[in-house]
Design goal:
single chain, 525 residues, Growth Hormone, Chain: A, two-stranded antiparallel sheet, 18 helices
Length: 525
């Protein structure tokens, strides 16, 4: 009589569902509760980490100007990039550490570093000189502490069966996305404190709208440490299998546990790292270029660009959370590789529709142009006549003393590159808002399945380093290409890169399979 495989969720202990044999428990109910309690602590760790990153991002530039008048936008670029550099280095180190020692150690140490770095950021005003370098050091160590993402992902991969893993990885990403949404909201709420705030002379504490988010990040880190000490316990599905001496028969996507024998497919591992790099490179470019692009295309002021893009990104964040939750159910019906390929196609279309077309051109910053440029009156008259035809988001003509809005004169491409219509931009946000979470979740879920039951700390460290490297190089690429060559040369190569990733998935389709499926296939050959 054929044994029916029971429905498995977080409340159900792992079962041996081998056909033809009596179904037996792999873990007790108490072990199941402890395992999922520890996994949920990892969800919170990811949530707190993403809040700690996003809660200060929008206030870094005004705080930097406040504490050190010598800082310029180039130094701001270093402060933003150094976070990803710190995470890139630390993710490999903490990942390797977690392979040989209890994961509680690198988790607690990394969060302690994060707490100390946030406190240093809050006290960046205190030193008499070189304050900008203290901010730089603080953000570097905040990023270094965030390297524990590799430990979180490797633990969840090892503490879940293949059937549970898609849902668990989707939950991690949902918690991360929720943190990215809530962080800026908390920062906005703290603006009521004001730029001066309160000052406690005894400990030289200055609590204002710039430092309060950092101290809140430090508090969340301390809370996270307490949760890890009290609730977190080490669990490994493979260890449970060995402890119960159950020989599990692997059945395609219904695998519950994994065979520990065999070598990892390094070609598949490298492929996943390349895909992960491209995913984060594309998204980092999108989030970096949003504000300057909309200011150039639609003649928005800086305040308008921050407000409207903030609303769009919050909407995209909510959309991402919905996608993460949907993946948990779609993964039972659609294969991981197919969803990954579909995600890349959505991202490609999202960037492709951003390519400019038509005969409407951006508004030039005429106040700046008429106040001392080398353009002839004929050239000015020509461009004014071109812009007169553009009635999209039309604004009153600028006087000599008005704030210059529109595309800067220094960006020569503004004179001959058509605008990106607002409908194009919103459509792009919607498509990328679906494609990005699909690709990010499926890439490291598939990666964890390729690695199998072997210790994944180092490999997860390399994956996190790939994403951090992409988040470092993406803004640098935008900073060099967009001001000089415009959106065509920014989004054109990016479309090619994303299409290359989709082609790579197709070429490596047969290799992007779970460790146990590959091992079983090799045994049958």
């Amino acid at each position: 009589m054929e044994t029916v495989q029971p429905e498995v969720d977080e409340r159900s202990p792992l079962l041996n569902a081998e056909p033809g044999r009596e179904t037996t428990l792999v873990e007790t109910l108490q072990e199941n509760r402890s395992r999922w309690r520890s996994i949920r602590v990892m969800y919170l760790t990811m949530f707190f980490s993403s809040i700690g990153f996003s809660i200060v991002v929008s206030s870094i530039w005004p705080f930097l100007q406040k504490v050190d008048k010598t800082a310029d936008t180039r130094f701001l670029g270093w402060i933003i990039a150094v976070y990803s550099l710190g995470q890139m280095i630390a993710s490999v180190l903490f990942g390797a550490w977690s392979n040989y020692r209890p994961r509680r150690e690198p988790l607690i140490i990394s969060i302690v570093i994060n707490v100390a770095a946030n406190i240093l950021y809050g006290y960046a005003h205190a030193p008499p000189t070189h304050n900008k370098y203290y901010m730089l050091l603080a953000r570097a160590f905040v990023g270094f502490g965030a390297g524990n993402v590799a430990v979180v992902r490797s633990y969840v991969a090892g503490a879940t069966s293949l059937e549970e893993r898609n849902g668990a990885m989707a939950n991690i990403s949902a918690c991360q996305a929720l943190g990215f949404i809530l962080g800026p909201a908390l920062q906005t709420a703290m603006t009521s404190i004001g730029p001066t705030g309160v000052f406690w002379k005894m400990i030289d504490l200055q609590l204002n709208m710039y430092t309060a988010p950092a101290f809140l990040g430090a508090f969340l880190g301390i809370l996270n440490i307490i949760l890890i000490i009290v609730l977190f316990r080490e669990h490994c599905v493979t260890d449970l299998e060995r402890a119960n001496s159950i020989n599990v028969n692997i059945q395609g996507n219904s695998e519950m546990l994994e065979n520990a024998d065999g070598d990892i497919d390094l070609v598949a591992v490298i492929t996943c790292n390349i895909l992960f790099f491209i995913i984060f490179f594309a998204f980092s470019i999108f989030e970096t270029i949003a504000t300057p692009l909309t200011m150039d295309m639609y003649a928005w002021t800086g305040k308008q660009a921050v407000l409207y893009n903030g609303l769009l990104l919050v909407g995209a964040g909510v959309e991402s959370i919905a996608v993460f939750l949907a993946i948990k159910y779609l993964s039972k019906r659609i294969e991981d590789r197919q969803m990954l390929l579909g995600g890349f196609i959505l991202i490609f279309v999202g960037f492709f529709i951003l390519l400019p077309w038509g005969n409407q051109y951006p508004r030039i910053q005429w106040a700046e142009l008429k106040n001392g440029s080398n353009y002839s009156s004929a050239e000015i008259e020509y461009h004014e006549s071109s812009i007169a035809a553009w009635n999209f988001l039309s604004r009153p003509s600028l006087g000599l003393n008005a704030i210059a809005v529109g595309c800067p004169v220094q960006q020569v491409w503004c004179q001959y590159t058509p605008i990106i219509h607002l409908a194009q931009y919103i459509g792009s946000v919607i498509l990328i808002g679906v494609g990005y979470p699909v690709c990010s979740v499926l890439s490291y879920t598939l990666y964890s399945k390729i690695l199998g039951p072997k210790p994944q700390g180092v490999y997860m460290g390399w994956l996190t380093a790939s994403g951090s490297g992409a988040r470092t190089l993406g803004p640098a690429f935008v900073g060099q290409v967009y001001p000089r060559y415009g959106p065509r040369w920014t989004f054109g190569p990016l479309c090619g890169m994303v299409m290359a990733a989709a082609i790579l998935v197709g070429l490596m389709y047969k290799k992007l399979i779970g460790f146990s499926i590959r091992y079983q296939t090799l045994q049958q050959c």
